[in-house]
Amino acid sequence: MQIDMITCANPLAQYMEYKKRIDAAVSGVLASGRYILGDEVKAFEQELAVYLDVPYAIGCGSGTDALVLALRALDIGTGDEVIVPSHTAVPTVAAIAIVGAIPRFVDIEPGFFTIDPACIEVACSANTKAIIAVHLYGQSAAIGDIADIARRHNLYLIEDCAQAIGATYQGKKLGTIGDIGCFSFFPTKNLGAIGDGGAIVCKDQLLATRINRLRQYGWNNDRISEEPGINSRLDELQAAVLRVKLEFLDNANKQRKHLADIYSQSLGQLPLSIPIERAEAEHVYHLYVVQTGYRDTLIEFLKEHSVNAGIHYATPIHKMPAFKREVALPATEKAAAMVLSLPLYPGMEMESQKYIIKLIHTFFENKLLE
Ligand SMILES: *Cc1c(COP(=O)(O)O)cnc(C)c1O
Asked: Residue 190: which pLDDT band, with cuts at 50, 70 and 90?
């Protein structure tokens, strides 16, 4: 019997679920003759702002661009330092480099994989301008403590919410706690477009005006460039698809949480660490990440049985040639060696999940026999 590969994420499953609505949205845009920054983008920005309960939401070209625009709107550039975890996706750090600023890598809290507040103050210098807190895997960083530190040291706080749309901290949606929240709509994210897309949210009107300008050549309403900007616009096709999917986001996140609970109940007795949930925070399980010292043999075993698990992330950013730094980050290095992301996505079949759970049990039973 030929078994299809079970992948870590599956954006096609979500398209199939809402195919009629998405096809209609796409046709509508094609027939409208307006393809960039039109009514769909405006409506999506409003709906996203309502969903997150934040005054301003601005669409842009990608999650990376959202971070770049956030940094530029806060006047962070050459020579400024930005505190950031090394255990994150490359774009978090790429954005800092794009504006000419310097990433200051700090360690993570081992159980949560998010920036360790205790390490932030130590990393502060006279040149530090901002902290980027990454809500990794779908769960909030210790954002209350981090916001306190930012306030005390007069630093801007940017939330990288690329993996955590819909997640909350003390009932507040992530992205609305710091100065600016940045989102990605890359197809595999919890709210995924059919190409690249991103958004920036904030509470300050002047900041929103500036971000709006910066995303389109620095133009004011008369198409006069007030300052040098970039081209990072959300297009109408993406916005139309995102509007459909935003309606179902809470439901999709619930499905993710349900699948995560089943994994945790079924794998908890095995010699691997299952995710822990932060008190006061709601996890939206962009990724279901376990830790095991047998990571590399387990991932091979799963692959031999048609299951593609993932590693997020195998190489800490401070070890990559582009961003190399001599800095001791023990929790980060340990996580990089042990993390494994199991397949989890809305629309995943119960049978697939059962099959994966059974495989992992078999793997550890075989280990005991060795
Ligand atoms: C996906 C992602 C981004 C950037 O998103 P793009 O849309 O791919 O530019 C930034 N930060 C994190 C943590 C991400 O996972």
From this structure: very high
Distance 64 CA to ligand 1 centre (A): 6
Tell me the per-residue pLDDT of 64-118, one tens digit each, with 9 for 90 and over. Answer: 999 999 999 999 999 999 999 999 999 999 999 999 999 999 999 999 999 999 9
Q: For position 368, what pLDDT does the model report? A: 81
Matching residue, tokens 């590693």 = 311
Residues 6+ apart with CB under 8 A from 231: 61, 215, 216, 217
Asked if residues 163 and 92 have their Cβ atoms less than 8 Å apart, the reply is no
pLDDT bracket for residue 3 (50, 70, 90): low
Distance CA 117, CA 107 (A): 9
Alpha-carbon dihedral of residues 300, 303, 305, 309, nearest 10 degrees? 110
- Nearest alpha carbon, ligand 1 atom 5: 63
Element (H, E) at 304: helix 295-304
Residue-level pLDDT at 1: 45
Nearest to 45 by CA among 295, 215, 242, 182: 242
The whole-angstrom distance between residue 160's C-alpha and the CA centroid of its chain comes to 6
Q: Are 71 and 93 a contacting pair, CB within 8 Å?
A: no
Atom of ligand 1 nearest to the CA of 197: 7
